[in-house]
C-alpha cells in the first residue's frame, strides 16, 4: 500500500516537472527577442558563421524539438547558460543554493517554533483575550507585504532568516491554531482533561495523533511559502541566494535561468509536499 | 447559567458585528476618498514640483514630495484608487476562471475532474511569487504605464485562480452526486440547464468567499511586485510603487510620513480580512 503511494507520488512529480518544463520551454520560445542573437552583430564573424548561427536558431523554432533538446541536455547535467550572467545555470545554482537552503531552513524552524508556541499556549490557556492578542499579532504580519518585512529587516539589521520566519509564521499559526482548537474540543480530550490527565500527556497521546497528519500537510505547504519568501528577502537584503538570482533573472529577462529556477523550486516544493503526505500516511497506518 | 451563556453569545455576536461594521465603514471611507482624488489632491500624480523635491510635509504638500518633487498625498490617493479598483477586478476574473475550470471540471467528473485537478496541482506546486515574476519577465519592456497596470492585475487574475478552483472542483464533485441533483437528472434535466439551475446556485457561497479571499491576496502581491520593481511602471502610482520609497530609508524615525502608504495598505487588508471571516462563514 505504501509502495503504491510512493510510486504514485513519484509519477506525479515526474509528470508535473515534465509538464512544467514544457510550459517553461514554451514561455522561453515565445518570449520577445528569442530569435535575436547578439553574436550575429559581431563584425568579426564572416557571413558563413552568421548563417550557421541563424541555422542553429531555426532548429529551435519547433517547440517540441526545442524541448526535447533541452531535456537531453538537462539529463547530462547541462541546464543551459544564463543570458545575463554568461555562466552555466548549474554552476550558479551550486554557488547559491546552500545560502538559500540555510535561510529557508532557519526561517522555517523559527516560524514553526513561534507559531506552535502561540497556538499551543492559546489552546491550553483558553483565555479569549490571549487568543485575540495572538490572532491580532499573526493577522498584522499577514497584512504586511513580504517585501516590506524584508525592507524593515534591513532597516533594523535583523537577519534575513528571521524575516522569512516572520513571513511564514502567521500562515502556519492560523492553521495550527484552528487544528489544535478543533482537536482540544473533541469529546475524548475534554474527558481526559476532566479526569485530570497532565497537559503534556493529553498533547502527545490524544492531540498529536488527531492534528499531526494535518499539521504535516501544513508543513509541506510552508516549505513552498518559505521558498517564495526567499525572493524578496534575498533581493532586498542583498543576500546572494537562489531568490536573488531569480529576481535578477526577472529584471534582466533571463528566461532560460528563470525557468530552470522555477522548475527546480517546483521540484523542491513537490518533494516537500509528497514527503509530508507520505509521513502522514505512515503515521495514520501505525495508528490503525 | 443559561442566561449567562446567552449573554456571552450575544456579547460575542455584537463584538463580531462591530468589527465587521467598522471594517466595512473603513473600506467605504478609503474607496470614497480615493475616488475623490480629482478634487482632494492638489495636483495630478505625475506633476512635479521641482523646487520642492524631497520636501517634508507642509500646508501645500500634506505628505511631502518624493525625490523628483511629486506630491505624495496625490500619489497615495491615485495609487489607492488603482489598487482598490483593479484588485477586485482581478479577483472577479480569477473567480470566473476558477468556476470555469474547477466548477465545470468537478461537475462533469471523470477525466474532466482529473484534468482540472492536475492543472491546479501543477500551478499550486509553483510558489506564487516565482510564477508571477516568471510570467512578468515575458512581458515586453516597452509597455505604457497604463498597460503595465492592466498587465499586472490581469496577470494576477489569470494566475490566481488555482486554489479557488481546487475548492470548487471538490464542492462541485460533491454536488454532482447529491440527492437533489440525481433527482433533477432523473426528472430529465441535463447538461447546461442542470448546472445553471441546480449546481451553480449552490456554488455561489464558495464563489463569493473565493472572491473576497482573492482581493487582499492580489493587493499584497501587487505590492510585492512593485517593491521588487516588477509591477506597475512609472509614473503611474500603486501601493507597490509607493512602498518602494521605503527602500531608501536609513531609520524609521527619519521620515515617518513615508510609512503612510504602508499603514493605509495594512488598514485596508485588515478590513478585507475582517470582512472575509463573514464570507467564510457564509460559504461554510
How would you characterize this protein structure?
The complex is a heterodimer of chains A (288) and B (284). By secondary structure, chain A is mainly alpha-helical. Chain A contains eleven helices and no strands. Chain A is elongated, with a radius of gyration of 24 Å. The mean pLDDT of chain A is 86. Classes of the chains: A mainly alpha (288), B mainly alpha (284). Chains A and B meet through helix 1, helix 5, helix 6, helix 9 and helix 10 of A and helix 4, helix 5, helix 9 and helix 11 of B.
Helix content of chain B: over 70%
Low-confidence stretches of chain A: none
> Which overall shape of chain B is indicated by the principal axes computed on the Cα atoms?
globular
Oligomer: heterodimer
Strand content of chain B: under 5%
- Write the H/E string of chain A, N to C: HHHHHHHHHHH
Structural class of chain A: mainly alpha
Content of β-strand of chain A: under 5%
Shape of chain A: elongated
Which series of helices and strands of chain B comes N to C? HHHHHHHHHHH
Low-confidence stretches of chain B: none
- Using DSSP, what is the number of strands of chain B? 0
- Major sheet details of chain B: none
Q: Kindly state the number of beta strands of chain A.
A: 0
Q: Distance between termini of chain B?
A: 29 Å
Mean pLDDT of chain B: 87
Distance between the termini of chain A: 14 Å
Number of helices of chain A: 11
- SS summary, helix count of chain B: 11
Mean pLDDT reading of chain A = 86
Q: Summarize the amount of helix of chain A as a percent range.
A: over 70%
Amino acid at each position: 500500500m505504501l509502495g503504491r503511494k510512493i510510486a504514485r507520488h513519484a509519477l506525479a512529480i515526474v509528470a508535473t516537472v515534465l509538464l512544467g518544463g514544457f510550459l517553461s520551454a514554451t514561455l522561453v520560445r515565445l518570449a520577445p527577442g528569442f530569435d535575436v542573437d547578439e553574436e550575429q552583430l559581431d563584425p568579426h564573424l564572416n557571413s558563413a558563421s552568421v548563417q550557421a548561427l541563424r541555422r542553429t536558431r531555426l532548429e529551435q523554432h519547433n517547440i517540441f524539438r526545442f524541448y526535447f533538446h533541452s531535456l537531453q541536455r538537462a539529463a547530462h547535467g547541462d541546464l543551459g547558460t544564463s543570458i545575463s550572467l554568461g555562466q552555466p545555470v548549474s554552476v550558479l545554482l551550486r554557488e547559491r543554493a546552500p545560502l538559500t537552503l540555510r535561510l529557508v531552513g532557519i526561517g522555517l524552524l523559527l516560524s514553526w517554533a513561534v507559531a506552535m508556541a502561540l497556538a499551543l499556549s492559546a489552546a491550553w490557556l483558553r483565555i479569549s483575550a490571549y487568543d485575540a492578542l495572538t490572532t491580532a499579532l499573526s493577522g498584522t504580519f499577514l497584512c504586511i507585504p513580504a517585501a516590506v518585512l524584508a525592507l524593515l529587516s534591513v532597516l533594523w539589521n535583523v537577519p534575513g532568516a528571521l524575516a522569512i520566519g516572520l513571513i511564514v509564521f502567521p500562515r502556519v499559526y492560523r492553521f495550527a491554531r484552528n487544528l489544535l482548537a478543533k482537536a482540544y474540543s473533541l469529546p475524548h480530550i475534554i474527558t481526559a482533561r476532566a479526569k485530570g490527565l497532565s497537559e503534556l500527556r493529553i498533547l502527545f497521546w490524544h492531540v498529536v495523533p488527531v492534528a499531526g497528519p494535518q499539521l504535516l500537510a501544513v508543513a509541506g505547504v510552508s516549505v513552498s511559502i518559505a521558498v517564495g519568501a526567499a525572493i524578496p528577502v534575498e533581493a532586498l537584503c542583498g543576500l546572494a541566494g537562489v531568490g536573488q538570482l531569480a529576481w535578477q533573472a526577472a529584471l534582466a529577462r533571463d528566461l532560460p535561468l528563470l525557468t530552470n529556477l522555477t522548475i527546480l523550486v517546483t521540484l523542491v516544493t513537490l518533494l516537500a509536499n509528497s514527503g509530508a503526505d507520505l509521513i502522514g500516511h505512515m503515521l495514520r497506518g501505525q495508528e490503525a | 447559567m443559561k442566561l449567562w451563556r446567552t449573554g456571552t453569545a450575544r456579547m460575542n455576536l455584537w463584538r463580531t458585528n462591530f468589527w465587521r461594521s467598522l471594517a466595512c465603514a473603513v473600506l467605504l471611507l478609503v474607496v470614497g476618498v480615493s475616488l475623490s482624488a480629482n478634487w482632494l489632491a492638489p495636483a495630478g500624480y505625475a506633476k512635479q514640483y521641482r523646487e520642492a523635491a524631497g520636501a517634508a510635509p507642509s500646508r501645500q504638500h500634506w505628505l511631502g514630495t518624493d525625490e523628483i518633487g511629486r506630491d505624495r498625498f496625490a500619489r497615495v490617493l491615485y495609487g489607492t484608487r488603482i489598487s482598490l479598483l483593479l484588485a477586485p477586478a482581478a479577483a472577479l476574473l480569477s473567480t470566473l476562471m476558477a468556476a470555469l475550470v474547477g466548477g465545470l471540471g468537478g461537475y462533469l467528473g471523470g477525466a474532466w475532474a482529473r484534468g482540472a485537478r492536475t492543472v491546479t496541482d501543477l500551478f499550486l506546486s509553483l510558489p506564487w511569487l516565482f510564477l508571477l515574476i516568471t510570467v512578468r519577465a515575458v512581458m515586453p519592456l516597452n509597455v505604457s504605464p497604463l498597460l503595465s497596470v492592466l498587465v499586472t492585475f490581469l496577470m494576477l487574475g489569470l494566475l490566481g485562480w488555482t486554489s479557488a478552483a481546487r475548492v470548487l472542483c471538490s464542492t462541485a464533485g460533491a454536488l454532482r452526486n447529491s440527492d437533489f441533483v440525481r433527482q433533477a437528472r432523473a426528472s430529465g434535466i441535463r447538461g447546461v440547464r442542470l448546472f445553471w439551475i441546480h449546481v451553480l446556485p449552490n456554488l455561489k457561497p464558495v464563489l463569493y468567499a473565493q472572491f473576497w479571499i482573492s482581493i487582499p491576496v492580489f493587493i499584497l502581491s501587487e505590492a510585492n511586485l512593485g517593491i521588487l520593481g516588477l509591477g506597475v511602471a512609472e509614473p503611474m502610482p500603486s501601493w507597490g510603487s509607493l512602498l518602494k520609497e521605503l527602500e531608501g530609508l536609513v531609520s524609521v524615525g527619519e521620515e515617518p510620513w513615508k510609512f503612510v502608504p504602508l499603514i493605509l495598505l495594512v488598514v485596508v487588508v485588515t478590513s478585507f480580512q475582517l470582512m472575509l471571516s463573514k464570507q467564510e462563514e457564509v460559504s461554510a
